[in-house]
Amino acid sequence: MKIEKRLEGLNLTLPELPTPVANYVPAVRAGNLLFVSGHGPGSGEGKLYKGTVGDDLTIEDGYQSARQTALCLISTIKGAIGDLDKVKQFVKVVGFVNCTEDFTDQPKVVNGASDLFVEVFGDKGKHARAAVGMQQLPGGIPVEVEVIVEVED
Questions:
Q1: What is the pLDDT of residue 45?
Q2: CB-based burial of residue 87 (10 Å sphere; 0-12 exposed, 13-18 middle, 19+ buried)?
Q3: Which of 45, 64, 87, 144 has the fewest CB neighbours in a 10 Å radius?
Q4: Where residue 102 sits, what CATH number does that domain have?
C-alpha cells in the first residue's frame, strides 16, 4: 500500500475507472507487461479542459490536462493489477497533444503526465517517451496518453 499512501500524501484521488467508448479494453497484460489504452483527462482533480493547445489553451492548461490523464491511467492500472505496488517500472509513455499546426512544445504538455508518474512512483515512474502533435483528438480533448508498464506477479 506504499503507492496508495503516496497518492494520499500528495492529496491525489484516483478517478472512477473509465469506460471504453468503443470496441477495446482499457488494458491488456502480456507476460509482465501491461499495455494501457490511450486515455484522456477524466473528471478527477481540477478543471476538465477541452480545446486546442496553442489556440484556446495554454501550455499550462495542456500540462494540467496531461496530469489528469495520468491519474486516469493510474486508476486503470490499479483496476488491471489490483495493487499499485506491483508496478515494477513505467516502460513507455506516448502522449498526443491536440495543438495548432505551428505549436512545437508538445513535450512541455506531456510533462504533466510524466511528472505525475515520477511523483507517485519515484524512479519506477521514469520512462521512455514520445510526445507528438495532432490536428484533433476524440471529443475535443487536448491530450491523450497511453502507457506500457512492467508489473510483478
A1: 58
A2: buried
A3: 45
A4: 3.30.1330.40
Give the three-class secondary structure for 144: strand
CA distance to 12, 60, 81, 140, per residue, from 151 (Å): 22, 31, 8, 32
23 occurs within a structural domain: no
Contact assessment for residue 42 and residue 71, using Cβ atoms and an 8 Å cutoff:
yes
22 located within any domain? no
pLDDT along the chain (153 residues), means of 10: 95 86 93 97 74 97 96 96 98 98 98 98 98 95 98 93
Domains in the chain: how many in total? 1
- Which residue type occupies 27? A
Q: Which of 153, 77, 62 is nearest to 112 (CA)?
A: 62
The verdict on residue 142 lying in a domain is yes
Angle between helices 2-9 and 106-121 (to 10 degrees): 120
Gap between the Cα atoms of 65 and 68, Å rounded: 5
Query: In this structure, is residue 29 part of a structural domain?
Result: no
Q: Are strands 87-98 and 143-151 parallel, antiparallel or unpaired?
A: antiparallel
Measured distance CA(144)–CA(69) in Å, rounded: 7
The conformation of residue 24, written as its DSSP 8-state character, comes to S
